[in-house]
Write a structure and sequence with these properties.
alpha/beta, 14 helices, two-stranded antiparallel sheet, oxidoreductase, Rossmann fold, Dehydroquinate synthase-like, alpha domain, 407 residues, 6-stranded parallel beta sheet, Alcohol_dehydrogenase_Fe, ADH_Fe/GldA
Length: 407
């Protein structure tokens, strides 16, 4: 099958299916299949096309899922104003910093009460992940844990998932094109729910929506995009198209993150950062690694509200030191991509970048203590990102990495 990828101007309609012919000694059952299957509109003013998206997807009554910050910024109002002529859609804004099982159930009750048939997720990764959870349970019997990846839930998620239109308002998460939703269950475990059916049917990427982001959020979400590109590139899975996208996204992010943080109205920097975030999300097909294996359970802690992108920024250098012995060839490519010296220390490079952005130096500055090390290390081993780290890691390895990150 001939692969095709259209990139025209600032718009992407990215539909790539690449079937790689396996060696004759391999079973057809393990033939690698690479797919990027969603429709993306990327340009300033892209939200103007949401009414057309709803019509094309057959969504007559959407539930808008956002958070209070996005609502107060007036972005939800911009979207509801585009839907004039129809009944005002219900809006759910009680999205926690890290989406929870309880929030999914609360939003699902609103969805069912109003007879909704689709969702518009507006915001960062939390509203988008929450919307995916609602879309899942709107068409599948609970409990939610039944569909978690580590509980064998991937094949239980069917195409009956309600359609989601994702409208990112930060440049970092990549969830608008991702197949995963990270949700913290009642017992505190932050689990991944993964399926191609969870990829939003539309990703509406409008850099205009990021112009008002404060410096710290620009920096933290931007480092999230950086981490996605680095970790997916280093993943041992063989996926050359994803690796090319990851390197392009990493270069865009590194070249523009400080510009966007210093001048939030820099339209080109905002455009480049949103593209970097999108590309980071497109590479999720390769899997992530130890950074996310640690940041996921840390984000599920109930007594701390820890921002995902900030966690990734702090943990990334530690894992780069751990992984180097198993990925030196790829480290060399990253150095070349970023224009660094052949002997440059990547861990030190990203540590200094994070420092210039004003992000925390270690997890202790975020309130994390060494008392949680054993529990988080055990949770990291069970996280779905653990399997695709560049270097195999043990519980003891995670304990050492986490202790170093705490400082």
């Amino acid at each position: 099958m001939k692969p095709s990828m259209g990139l025209t101007g600032s718009a992407i309609d990215n539909k790539l299916i690449l079937h790689q012919r396996p060696p004759l000694t391999r079973s057809v059952d393990v033939m690698p299949v690479i797919s990027y299957l969603t429709t993306i509109r990327f340009e300033f003013g892209a939200i103007q096309g949401i009414p057309q998206d709803l019509a094309e997807l057959g969504i007559a009554k959407p539930l808008i899922i956002a958070d209070e910050g996005v609502a107060k910024a007036g972005i939800v109002g911009q979207i509801t104003a585009l839907l004039e002529g129809s009944a005002s859609p219900p809006v759910f804004t009680r999205t926690p910093t890290n989406p929870t099982e309880e929030a999914v159930e609360d939003a699902l009750a609103v969805y069912r009460e109003h007879g909704c048939d689709g969702l518009i997720a507006v915001g960062g990764g939390s509203p988008i992940d929450l919307a995916k959870g609602v879309a899942l349970l709107a068409a599948h019997d609970g409990p939610l844990e039944r569909y978690a990846a580590i509980r064998g839930g991937i094949p239980r998620i069917t195409a009956a998932v309600a359609p989601v239109i994702a409208v990112p308002t930060t440049a970092g998460t990549g969830s608008e094109v991702g197949r995963a939703s990270l949700i913290t269950l009642r017992d505190g475990r932050k689990l991944g729910f993964i399926s191609p059916h969870l990829i939003p049917k539309r990703a509406v990427c409008d850099p205009e929506l990021t112009l008002g982001l404060p410096r710290w959020l620009t920096a933290a979400t931007g480092m999230d995009a950086v981490t996605h590109c680095v970790e997916t590139y280093l993943s041992p899975r063989d996926n050359p198209p994803a690796e090319a996208i990851a390197l392009d996204g990493l270069k865009r992010a590194v070249d523009n993150i400080e510009k966007a943080a210093a001048n939030g109205s820099d339209r080109d920097a905002r455009h480049q950062m949103m593209m970097a975030a999108l590309e980071g999300g497109l590479t999720f097909q390769k899997g992530l690694g130890a950074v996310h294996a640690l940041s996921h359970p840390l984000g599920g802690l109930k007594d701390l509200s820890l921002h995902h992108g900030t966690l990734n920024a702090v943990i990334l250098p530690v894992t780069l030191r751990f992984n180097q012995s198993h990925a030196e060839a790829k480290y060399a490519v990253i150095r070349a991509t970023l224009g660094l010296a052949a002997d440059a220390d990547l861990a030190d490079y990203f540590e200094r970048l994070s420092g210039r952005l004003g992000l925390p130096k270690n997890l202790a500055e975020m309130g994390v203590t060494r008392a949680i090390v054993p529990a988080i290390a055990r949770a990291a081993i069970e996280d779905h990102s653990h399997a695709t780290n560049a270097r195999p890691a043990t519980v003891e390895d995670y304990e050492r990495m986490l202790t170093e990150a705490i400082g």
